[in-house]
Amino acid sequence: MDFITIDFETATPERNSPCEIGLTFVENNQIKEVKSWLIKPICYPYFDDFCVSIHGITPKDVKNSPEFVELWKEIEPLIKHKFLIAHNAGFDSSFLKASMDRYNIYWIFGFRTVDLHTIAYIDLLKRKEEIPLIYGTSALSLNKILEIVGLPKEPDPHNALNGAKYETEAVYRLVYGISGLNEFKNYPIPIDLAKVKQTMLF
User: Fold this and answer.
1) For residue 24, what is the domain's CATH number?
2) What is the pLDDT of residues 146-193, one digit of tens each?
């Protein structure tokens, strides 16, 4: 299958304020490349303190980075006509769409987004495992999914490159029962995932 995992870090809670994008490119079931770019957000030089506490990116880091509209010229040929996967695809794709809308860029993806949360939820149902809940709804955070697939928590401070890599590795373990990235091969795959390769989703 061909897909791209996408992860954003943002300067503020506003959806059109990305300050970093991370992408992992998978073609014919092989991970081809992992890339990230810093972005000068439209709110520059303002950065929300809470957001900075999450990812550690500051105005100084993006001072000489391109704005989204400039970066899009490089990114569009790489991701056009691809499936996008994210932990919460609706959330991450909304940041992408808001940024594209801000610069009147046509939304090229239709509904080709896949949710890592949903993949993990279906996997637990198929294996008749208990779904973790909080207040009666799913508590499958990214770190909880990483725990389920035998990976450590995403390091702090977060960055979009790590987010894209961890999400890709989780997809490989949930869908194929194997590791995808060499840097994660030393983390054993839980026996329930390794025993039964999941049905191809794409």
Assistant:
1) 3.30.420.10
2) 999 999 999 999 999 999 999 999 999 999 899 999 999 999 999 878
Residue 200 lies inside a defined structural domain of this protein = no
Tokens read off for 147: 């725990």
- Would you say the C-alpha torsion 23, 30, 198, 190 has a positive or negative sign? negative
Q: To 10 degrees, the CA torsion angle through 182, 185, 191, 193?
A: -20
What is the pTM for the complete model shown? 0.91
Does 56 fall in a domain? yes
Task: Specify if 136 maps to a domain.
Answer: yes
Decide: 164 and 23 in contact? Cβ < 8 Å: yes
Question: Closest by alpha carbon to 100, among 73, 74, 68?
Answer: 68
Kindly tell me the number of DSSP H helices and DSSP E strands found in the chain: 8, 7
Instruction: Indicate the residue type of 50.
Output: F
Residue 87 near residue 117 (C-beta atoms within 8 A): yes
Peptide bond into 132 cis (omega under 30): no
Residue pLDDT, tens place only, 86-102: 998 888 889 999 999 99
The residues, ordered by sequence, that sit 6+ positions from 41 with a Cβ below 8 Å of its Cβ are: 10, 11, 12, 16, 17, 18, 19, 47, 62, 67, 68
The verdict on residue 164 lying in a domain is: yes
